[in-house]
Specification:
It is a single chain. The protein has about 375 residues and is of the alpha+beta class. Helices cover about 45% and strands about 20% of the residues. The chain is built from eleven helices and 13 strands. The strands form three sheets. A six-stranded mixed beta sheet has the order 5-4-6-3-1-13, sandwiched between helices. A four-stranded antiparallel beta sheet has the order 10-11-9-12. Strands 2-7-8 form a three-stranded antiparallel beta sheet, sandwiched between helices. Strand 7 and strand 8 form a beta hairpin. Helix 6 packs across helix 8 and helix 8 runs antiparallel to helix 9. It is globular. It binds alpha-D-galactopyranose. The site of alpha-D-galactopyranose has 11 residues, from helix 5.
Length: about 375
């Protein structure tokens, strides 16, 4: 982490011949359970991790702003005297999307950033950039925005400048993360509670399939449309229902014909996933990791067969993991269509697990897995030298 902050601060100095006023660390996230339910009035159980975007910022002294993405070796300049609008380059949109709604309260600034969160791997590197940029602007210009407002600004950027109609989970986890704790977030009210991430003899290991989730944007937005359409049909028959949280499986089954096969599968997944999160919190509280693992694996089955956001590589990794007796749960994590799986397993079996999946994945797909043992960390914060 200090290597990352030093690199970014040094690059800022070289680029702009001055020290940055502030250096910010903004983390990626994992999610234990509760996938694709943040935009369906469910609950989620994410946590921030010790992989970060680091951003250095200071005023530029004019209306011109320069953004430097060290990892991409690219920079972008814009001027507050002209309209701030989306551009071709996606990395720029993560930041411009946060800048645009605040524009009137800002002056020119320069920003340099770099990241240790692998991009496009389901660890929310984009949310980390968005929330880091929002935090940086809030600090530099004394905007007085709350943590909730920062998370919402990040989500808004994703909707308006990036084009993914995401829920609030990633940005909320990035901003509100707490060391060694998972967050239980009520996605309707944004009320949240922290639970100690005490996993006893178990641990979490992530496997990066290295399949970039390029279909995520279209696939994700289509799923949103499908579940909205499904909810309308359900409400027609059960007017007392407002959200998926109020729905039972019996009600979904009752309107099966009207939903048709695809929407039936989508709606079933959502209702079951919402109830799994409740059970998972109970299992976590009781230190019942076998049950927690079973719920995680059930989530994968639903994401793959009913929500249809998996792919061959992720299914392969999950199946391989489940064949190892010390692994109690495995599933794809995040939006899907590629990225990482999250695995709950006995600490004592980590090396065996790593070797077995590594060898099998290479043999089947010719790809070297990246394996991460992450620590649960603090949310977006100011770095003090
Ligand atoms: C992406 C989105 C989140 C959430 C997950 C799936 O990460 O950004 O809002 O919907 O997918 O749980």
């Amino acid at each position: 982490m200090s290597a990352l902050t030093e690199k970014v601060q040094k690059a800022y100095q070289v680029e702009f011949q001055q020290e940055p006023a502030y250096t910010i660390l903004s983390p990626g996230r994992i999610n234990i359970i509760g996938e694709h339910v943040d935009y369906n009035d469910g609950f989620v159980l994410p946590a921030a991790i010790n992989k970060y975007v680091c951003l250095a910022i200071a005023e530029s002294g004019s209306s011109v702003c320069t953004l430097v993405a060290l990892d991409l070796n690219k920079s972008f300049t814009f001027d507050f005297n002209k309209e701030v609008a989306p551009v071709e380059e996606m990395w720029v949109n993560y930041i411009l999307g946060v800048v645009a709604p605040l524009e009137k309260q800002l002056k020119g600034f320069n920003l340099v950033f770099s990241s240790t969160i692998p991009m496009g791997s389901g660890l929310s590197s984009s949310a980390a950039v968005e929330c880091g940029a929002a935090f940086a602007l809030n600090t530099l210009f004394n905007l007085g925005l709350s943590k909730e407002q920062l998370a919402k600004l990040g989500q808004q950027a994703e909707h308006t400048f990036v084009g993914v109609k995401c829920g609030i989970m990633d940005q909320f986890a990035s901003v509100f993360g707490k060391q060694n704790h998972v967050l239980k977030l009520d996605c309707t009210t944004l009320a949240y509670e922290y639970y100690p991430a005490n996993l006893g003899d178990y641990c979490l290991v992530l496997l990066n399939s290295k399949v970039k989730h390029t279909h995520l944007t279209s696939g994700y937005n289509t799923r949103r449309e499908e579940v909205e359409a499904g909810l309308k049909i359900i409400k027609n028959s059960f007017p007392e229902i407002n959200t998926y949280r109020d729905c039972t499986m019996e009600q979904i089954v009752a309107v099966k014909d009207r939903l048709g096969e695809t929407l039936y599968k989508r709606c079933s997944f959502v209702v079951q996933e919402i109830s799994r999160v409740g059970e998972a919190v109970e299992a976590l509280t009781n230190n019942d990791f076998e049950t927690l693992g079973k719920l995680m694996s059930a989530t994968h089955e639903g994401l793959s067969a009913d929500y249809e956001v998996s792919c061959d590589e992720l299914d392969f990794l999950v199946n391989k993991a489940k064949n190892i007796p010390e692994v109690v749960g495995a599933r794809l994590m995040g939006g899907g269509f590629g990225g990482c799986t999250i695995n709950l397993l006995k600490r004592s079996a980590v090396s065996k697990f790593e070797n077995e999946v590594q060898v099998a994945y290479k043999a089947r797909f010719g790809i070297d897995l990246d394996i991460y043992k992450v620590d649960i960390s603090e949310g977006t914060h100011l770095f003090h030298k």
